[in-house]
Design brief:
Number of strands: 0
Strand content: under 5%
Order of helices and strands: HHHHH
Helix content: 55-70%
Structural class: mainly alpha
Number of domains: 1
Shape: globular
Largest sheet: none
Radius of gyration: 14 Å
Length: 97
């Protein structure tokens, strides 16, 4: 799987999760608050771009660096753990290649 395909898939999953979270909330305000982690993760994916300029072999190192760096975070502090989750999913998908 290419970096572009992986990031596109992650965006779709994230958007679906955000929509579900908002739909399950009793009101718009609660939906927005509960969707906040999804918003922060989407901002991180936006920062990565479409992935076309990220070399396949360097992508895990980028995620590892962000996951392990406490000062690299978004407004809610979700980026390091999300980067670690992305790395785990990336490695799982490439384990058999």
């Amino acid at each position: 799987m290419k970096v572009t395909e992986f990031l596109s898939s992650e965006r779709q999953t994230l958007e679906a999760g955000m929509a579900t979270t908002r739909a399950e909330a009793p009101d718009a305000y609660t939906g927005t608050v509960r969707a906040w982690p999804h918003v922060c993760c989407r901002e991180f994916l936006d920062w990565l771009g479409d992935g076309s300029d990220i070399p396949h072999d360097e992508f895990p190192a980028i995620l590892r660096r962000i996951a392990g760096h406490n000062e690299v975070h978004d407004r809610g502090g979700f980026t390091p753990s999300f980067a670690a989750d992305l790395l785990a999913r990336w490695q799982e998908q490439h384990r058999h290649e």
